[in-house]
Amino acid sequence: MRIDIWSDVVCPWCYIGKRRLEKALADFEHADAVEVVWHSFELDPGSPREATETVPHMLGRKYGGGDEAGRQMVDRTEAVAAEEGLIFRLHQALRGNTRDAHRLLHLALETGGPQLQGRLKEAYLAAYFTEVRNVADAAVLREIAVATGLDPARVDAVLASEEYAADVQADIDRARAYGATGVPFFVVDEKYGVSGAQPTDVFAQVLRRAWDEREPSLQVVASDDACGPDGCAW
After folding, report:
1. CA–CA distance, 154 with 118 (Å, rounded to integer)
2. pLDDT of residue 219 exceeding 60
3. For the domain that residue 101 is a member of, what is the CATH number?
4. How far apart are CA 118 and CA 104, in angstroms?
5. CB atoms within 10 A of CB 211
């Protein structure tokens, strides 16, 4: 069974949703047969490559209310993250462009499959939300990618070019075709779409339903009029 997930590495609900899905998978008896593939979605494609604006300031400017309103939004999100075991440091995090991060995630998928891509995704999320690192910075992206297991020469080649840019855009177009206007957005076995960081039990229900439909159980209509090892009904 395959789960396709659209998200951005600077989306707090994407990280929260990731943890909730992982908790559901931890209790799913067929988890070993589940493959998770990450897809690109840029929440703020016009954001600068040189990150200077803090997240609270950006939120207050975008939604109104100034820095104080932005800090309150961050406080609420950090409280939810803490319930999932995540320690966010969004008050210090900076708004920045994520296109290069997405391109390297495509490199990871192509060269190392879903497992390597998944490790890099987690590393980029942790770098931004917990370590307050600038994921718009090519040097930061390179360091993390190489430490995760990507080939340094290939990482350098991607960062020095526009390789995988078309794949990033194709992911975004596909999400829109599904009707997704925000992330996280989960597609389970190409049958069920889950929008947002739903509670763990919602993910658990969808996993079970998708699996049952994948491996349908035989529905038996029983009758006493049959023959067996002990003879036949007369």
Report:
1. 18
2. no
3. 3.40.30.10
4. 12
5. 17
